[in-house]
Amino acid sequence: MTTQHQYKDTKIFKLESGKKLRGLEIAYHTYGTLNAKKDNVIWACHALTANADVLDWWKGLFGSNALFNPEEHFIVCANVIGSPYGTINPLSTNPVTGQPYYLAFPEFTIRDIVKAHQLLARHLKVEHIKVLIGGSLGGQQALEWAISDSKSIENLILVATNAFHSPWGIAFNESQRLAISTDRTFYANKPDGGSKGLKTARSIALLSYRTYEAYNTTQLESVNEKTEGFRAASYQNYQGEKLVNRFNAYSYWYLTKAMDSHNVGRGRKSIADALGMIKSNTLVIGIENDVLFPVTEQKFLSENIRNAEFFSVNSAYGHDGFLIETDILTRVIGNFLKESVNKKIVKLHQTA
User: Fold this and answer.
1) What is the mean pLDDT of the chain?
2) Catalytic residues, which ones?
């Protein structure tokens, strides 16, 4: 059974910055049924412009007859703060003015997103998560959650993510925000403000999501005579328009800033010390030719999280490989979870 829900919290939600949000709303999907032991929860954290319908955007890994299926698991995926798919965001009504927030929306961090997830988990009476999984910005959320609440996460799966957002990643995000800010309609306080800038921002982002090889495979011309109308140019335009039709510039602006904020060492002894706080059985997966989140970042995670396992995936798709290479992910994650169960059985026999 698949159900879309809306959680509303009447209490004031205090952000890491000290600013406050009134009337927190979180859109989320659940699939399947929580069993009597409440030990079959799979919680997925989504990436930058995705939504709470994980069976839609992570097909092959999630779905009927997939590794994570509603027939045996209770799957939860919550839409993040700032995203336009039902959770409070810059186009939500500001209770003070009665108008959408737009650029008056307070900046938030990955930790604020996680804090909202944890509120939702308590609302759902979820005290134990069998598997917490996320890729990219979703992996940043999963990592922060496992650090801040290490006891409730049994298995942690981090895909194409990092311990802190790199200068390279921040530079990409800032370039996209610069593109948005050159569109003067962004400051006009209307729902479609900044749309042309958002289209350009998406075009910039695609260059960090894919690779030279991927574009050569999918966008290479079949004739030599062209001087204009290239497939690669049409692809960039198409993908930009596609995002404009389903997203908004304000949410994109704030979510890229939230990604930039990611640093598990903030307010803690060090990054390594923060990673050392994780008690979950951890699998870290990297994409070998990922331009945006290089595999060195995942190796760093695995080297600093206690007893973490590391696996690298060879994909022509670069960073987007975490969404596309689901056959490989199914095999690697499936084997990891089987080993986790076997270790748990051995540990129970040792303590009996």
Assistant:
1) 96
2) 136, 290, 319
